[in-house]
Every structure is written in structure tokens, then in C-alpha cells.
Amino acid sequence: MRPPALPTVAALALASALTALAAAPATAAPVAPAAAPHLNHHLDRHASGNDNWGGYAVTGGTYHSVTGDWTVPALDCSATAGDISFWSGLDGWTSSSVEQIGLDAVCTKNRTVQYNPWVEMYPANSIYFTETVKAGDTMTSSVTTSGNGTFTLTLADPTQGWTKTYTKSAAGVALSSAEVIVEAIGSRTIPPCPDFHQVQFTDVTANGQSFATAGTVSTTNLERSGVLLTQDGPLTGTTFPVTWLHA
Predict the structure, then answer these.
(1) How confident is the model over 175-184, as pLDDT tens digits?
(2) Tell me: the pLDDT tens digits for 201-236?
(3) In what side-by-side order are the strands of the sheet with 113-122?
């Protein structure tokens, strides 16, 4: 039997490189964030404002569809951490469920910005997905149902070129409201809110009609101890702004 050949210098170099490569940590695939609870409005509403919801809702009918578009605002994370969410949905204004889809904008504790899209059939937990979203992107959202307990929830970012559609089921829902909302979210009773400057909502419809004509229109603003954090602008047909007031 011939003795094994001694390794050449080139072979030793290659083996060393392969060993180093094997020891290097693998690049992790994008991981969805841990769920942050979104809340139904009627649990937290008070006379002049709301701890969790700002924006507009319509009631007074049976609602089978809602749409809402917005431009993703840049966050100012210099003053505070916290999560703010932009979404459209059915139910929750006077009922205990919410069928909703949208985007969380997060100022982390180290003052970096994250954008996390999600879908949720409240009171079930949010399902987060990992598609890229950046400030300045256009987002479109819709929630529809035929009334048989099956919902189609769609969120798209035409700027980045992606669309996510979910089909979900829920029994015994009221279908008593439609809303397009800015929500302060988090695990605390009254979560902190980051400065999002202003978000402009467009194509805000319910049952295929403009919010302004789709039912009884209600408005709510984020508030802390009697101090407004946000102010809804006028609802003009299918558009309205929500402006940040306080850090």
C-alpha cells in the first residue's frame, strides 16, 4: 500500500479556508418581529379621545369591505421610542372583534426605525411578514368579506413591488363598522407613541363608497391625560390626514 500523499501548500491553504468558512456564522433569514397587541377601540374609548386609536370610522350599516391607502411616514425617534400602526379594518368600533391589516412603524430603544407589515383577526394575535417597507413607500390595504365568515385581507407596497393576500375565517362577527386608523400599540396599558409627523390617507372607502357617505362618520384622536397627541384633519370624500402634535 502506498503511503498517503503529503498535503501540498495549496491544499493546506484550501483546507484552512474551508475550516474558517465552516466556523463563520450563517447569515440569518429575515425574522418577523414578536407580536405587538392591537386593541379594539371600544375597550379604550373615552369622551374626548382614545388611548389607542386615532382616525375615522363609519357605522350605521353592515360593512363588507374597507380600503385605505397611505404614504409611509418617516419617524422622528430622537425624543421617544414606541410603536405606531397604520391600518384598515372591519369591526372594533362597537364590537369585540377586528378584522384588520396594516403596518407597524417602530422607534426601537436604540432609536432605529423598523417597518413591520402584519395581518390580524383580533382577538387572535397578529401575523407579521417580512416584506421590505421604507419611508416614502405607498401602501394600499383592503379587507373584504362576502358575509359568510370568510375574509380576504390584502396589503401591498407598489413602491417595493409586493402584495400579500390572506384568507381568514371568523365566526359571529358583527360587521358593524369600518375604520382606517392610526393606533398606538404595545404591551403596556398606555403605550408610548413615536413622532410620525403626519400620515395622509387616501382611497378611504367602505362598501365601495367614500367614508364621507358610507354611514355615520366618527372621529377619534390619540390622547394622554387630556392632552391630544394626534389631530385628525377633515375627512374630504376619501381622504384625510392625521397629524402628530406632541413628542
Answers:
(1) 999 999 999 8
(2) 999 999 999 999 999 999 999 887 778 889 999 999
(3) 127-128, 113-122, 98-107, 82-90, 177-185, 53-59, 216-220
Structural domain contains residue 119:
yes
For β-strands 216-220 and 53-59, DSSP reports them as: antiparallel
**Can you give the residue range of the structural domain that contains 54?**
38-244
As to burial, measured by CB atoms within 10 angstroms (0-12 exposed, 13-18 middle, 19+ buried), residue 143 is buried
DSSP state of 171: S
**Could you tell me the CATH number of the domain that includes residue 88?**
2.60.120.700
Based on the structure, what is the number of domains in the chain?
Answer: 1
Residue 87 lies in a domain: yes
Residue 55 CA to residue 201 CA, distance in Å, equals: 10
Backbone φ, ψ for residue 64 (5° rounding)? -110, -10
What span, in angstroms and rounded, lies between the C-alpha atoms of 213 and 58? 9
C-alpha cell at 48: 374626548
Q: What does the alpha-carbon distance between residue 172 and residue 231 come to, in Å, rounded to a whole number?
A: 33
The C-alpha atoms of residue 238 and residue 202 are separated, in whole angstroms, by 6
